[in-house]
Write a structure and sequence with these properties.
CATH class of the largest domain in chain B: Alpha Beta
CATH superfamily of the largest domain in chain A: FAD/NAD(P)-binding domain
CATH topology of the largest domain in chain B: Rossmann fold
Shape of chain A: globular
Oligomer: heterodimer
Number of strands of chain A: 15
CATH class of the largest domain in chain A: Alpha Beta
Strand content of chain A: 15-25%
Strand content of chain B: 25-35%
Strand order of the largest sheet of chain A: 3-2-1-4-15
CATH topology of the largest domain in chain A: FAD/NAD(P)-binding domain
Number of helices of chain A: 16
CATH architecture of the largest domain in chain A: 3-Layer(bba) Sandwich
Number of helices of chain B: 9
Strand order of the largest sheet of chain B: 11-10-9-8-12-13-16
Structural class of chain A: alpha/beta
Helix content of chain B: 25-40%
Largest sheet of chain A: 5 strands, parallel
CATH superfamily of the largest domain in chain B: Nucleotide-binding domain of ferredoxin-NADP reductase (FNR) module
CATH architecture of the largest domain in chain B: 3-Layer(aba) Sandwich
Largest interface: A-B, 40 and 46 residues
Amino acid sequence: MKQLTERERMAKRLPTYRIRDFDEVELGFTEDQAIREASRDIRFCKASCMLGCPVGVNIPEMLRLVAEGNYEEAYRRLIKKSPFPAITGRVCPQERQCEMFCVLAKAGKPISIGAIERFVGDWALANNVKEEATIKPNGLKVAVVGSGPASIVVASDLARLGYSIDMFEESHMAGGVLVYGIPEFRLPKEIVRKEVHRLKELGVNIRLGVPVGTAITIGELAREYDAVFLGVGAGHPKFLNVPGENLLNVYTANEFLTRANLMKGYRFPEYDTPLHVGKRVAVIGAGNTAMDSVRTAKRLGAEEAIVVYRRSRQEIPARAEEVLNAEEEGIKFEFLLEPIELLSNDKRTVSGIKLMKMKLIESSNCERKAVVPTGDTTKLDVDTVITAVGFNPNPSLKIGTNGLDTDDMGRIKVDGQGRTSLKGVYAGGDIVTGEGTVIEAMGWGRRASTAINEDLSVR
Amino acid sequence: MFKVNEILMKRQLASGVKEIIIFAPMVSRAAKAGQFITIMTDEKGERVPMTLVDWSATEGWIKIVISEVGLTTLKLGSKEVGETLYYLAGPFGNPVSELNSSTIILVGGGVGVPAIYPIARSLSRNNTVISIIGYKNANSILYEREIGEVSDEVIIATDDGSKGQKGFTSDALRELLDSGRKADAVWVIGPAMMMKACSEVTRPYAIKTFASLNSITVCGSGMCGACRVSVGGKTKYTCMDGPEFDAHEVNWDELILRLGAYKEEEKRALGRYILRSAN
């Protein structure tokens, strides 16, 4: 494989410009780029990429159709497996999924599958590609709880099969983590809005402002509908549990991102929701949520925006592309540090973090290295702290009171197809796995919709 | 038929205080005393929690009482009958704790008085309810009749003594307890300072005291942690774990601090709104 062609790269806006606004960072392939990349060194293709796709997209077929310029057909086939390519093309950690399995990955030049998927999705949205088949109602009703990645897949799958779908969302906008969590510069809300609009075109009835658990219980839904899908996610923030966590200007990443994204706090006072961003902002954690938070803080005027992570660079769990983007934008990284106290000069507002220096040691019973305190501490002066140290399953369903089996972390127990301990009730996404990616949640949605259709067909 | 989130009635209760009835059948069918809703007046608005004051499951409406002191409440108060709110969701939070055959003192301050109404109504079925309702002066009295209908006894206090007893609700509460009245539990709802003062009054008597907290809330469903409070040294979500907490365990100073987190922004946004409305 000596004469491999170079990868096509998506054009990106210059960091100096992009840190001043919330417009999208990556600009997507041009048509020429998409065709070139889809056919690049195709003679080596072993279709191994498919092993890495949680929803089983026939990637070689997509590449072939794109290379032929047949984008509409590529889209129609793609959405049978991945219904929202404009979204997953942007947010999937491809380097750990399809692209990792590409034969060209060994040479460091895997096909840019994510960028091609995004191109196909964007092309279809821009050209307003409509559903072809007319849907024949089958007379069965399914309630879908939540409107995030898992739920939108269940709704779109079952609506196409003729089910009548009521989707219940507590918030004022459908999309779940796609609208409250992932920032505009990584996933424009206009794209989510268009994809949600496609759901409505399929006949899905989206009911906003309905908190299932209090406004209506899972039991009531189970009696009223032929099946219920619970896709309420894991967005209940974990705290650091260190002194000073409730000082002013200490945010959970979810509060910070919700204020910024969903409530458009970055446009205060045009929008009513305020948010504080100081000059030196520390984000605790190094997952995707941390990257989203730190880059949002930078855009909101932080002179220094720093990621503080208890492990080292190698263990960063965030999507590689976003770590790269963050570095380009001048985000600083501090490794092997764990907060033990948030400090304040005036007992009101956070002014610094007391940190324990950590070290990595070999661990026999764990895949990755264990991290342990060294006993030495240090201090970091900051005026804003954002904690992004993980999530627990959403508590709003009051799952425990509904007779649903859960594990000790509060996640709903399901079989391999998303069936819960209650007949007719299914679950998928982060409420089942704890924390996963958008596409993993979509994969669960697909499994559950398949199970629902199978179970209701034999009934 | 009415539109969902349509304002059905609006009534001025006192200067700057309005009672608003909204068509919200999904909320009214499940509402319980002690719960709240979250509203947005318009697409650009903030998400703001409001205590459910009354509701009718059969007619599909809910009632809230607002004090027009901030941007959202002013916007809400300026909405006319027939207009709709951009967003309204609920009910959120846990219903009020249930008690039987007890003597209960409910303390409400200012616009906190309507908030004790559903609690009084719920608890008065199986308990003896004494309500202490406090206001600035005789002109700011509201919900006196409503509270009277669901209480066995009502004590009015005004800061200036222009009606009822002179002094704060905490003074009236102290007098009542000092006079030897026995109570099994006390509920306090109102401004944080007032709830703090009342909880200090009941502490030496070791009477179980509940407060319904009014933390700054964004999501209302346990997703953001904006509403977090320290209760008994542990961090709790007001929206999911509350809004009712053991008043003797609440870190009041922290709550008061956090309630003031956006004082400057709130002033700025309010000023901008008033200027624009004037033009």
